[in-house]
Amino acid sequence: MTHYLIYDQIPDRMKKDSYFHFALADALIRQVNKHPEQTMLHFWPTDKKVILGMMDTKLPYLSDGISSLENEGYEVVVRPSGGLAVISDPGILNFSFIIAEPDNKKLSIDDGYEMMVAIVRQAFSAYGKEIKAYEITDSYCPGTFDLSINGKKFAGIAQRRFRRGIGVMIYLSVDGNQQERGQVIRNFYQTSLKGEETRWHYPDVNPDSMANLTELLDPKLTIQAVQDLLTQAVIKNTVTPLDRNVYDSELLTEYNLAYDKMIKRNEKILPKERENEKLP
Known about the structure:
Radius of gyration: 18 Å
InterPro entries: aa-tRNA-synth_II/BPL/LPL (IPR045864), BPL_LPL_catalytic (IPR004143), LipL (IPR024897), Octanoyltrans_LipM/LipL (IPR050664)
Distance between the termini: 31 Å
Catalytic activity: N(6)-octanoyl-L-lysyl-[glycine-cleavage complex H protein] + L-lysyl-[lipoyl-carrier protein] = N(6)-octanoyl-L-lysyl-[lipoyl-carrier protein] + L-lysyl-[glycine-cleavage complex H protein]
Number of strands: 11
CATH class: Alpha Beta
Structural class: alpha/beta
Shape: globular
Protein name: Octanoyl-[GcvH]:protein N-octanoyltransferase
Oligomer: single chain
Keywords: Acyltransferase, Transferase
Domain BPL/LPL catalytic: 35-221
Number of helices: 7
């Protein structure tokens, strides 16, 4: 029997910690490997942030690009999954679907992405709009499984795996100024490249390539409403156990290890003084 755990609240002392959700996601993926009967749903909107991928750390003038983001009021953090920069703010919902790989089936990378595509399509099926999965090349963080309606991208998907634990992560642009988000990332790459050719490809972002779900589906949609729709799409009418925000000692051990790795990863690229915010 599947046991669903939903993580959608932050311990009070961690509410301003920019590494919390990244460390928690890694901890949950490692945890589900030990408890394959569990399926975990992790929801997290954030304050105003630009989340860089590891490929962004190769930009020739990265420090100038980071300064430009900070001057615009964005906090910058480097994530462990995915390749390129995305924006997160109170109008963006980040969602991770975390499962153990079944004993009887090897799940490919594409299988993981297809699971998330199916969840999102089910969540918004009542709106009768076709959600397509293909690369929107002039969006920020373009990828094969970008999700779009009428050619406008509203979500991007990444994936992270440890042993048999699989975490499929998605950001969904729910509301807010998506045009401005696109312009911010466009300016970031222009400042970080200064016209130089590199061995890595960075998108020439068109701010018009993306849109919010409030524009594409329903102006009344909120972050909470989208979270509820995604949750219903996963658990449907199940009567199996469901718990929220269970931070037991086993999970906290994994979290603290993942948190240390986040600190080391970011200190190499974004050196700054910060308090150690491990959970006890």
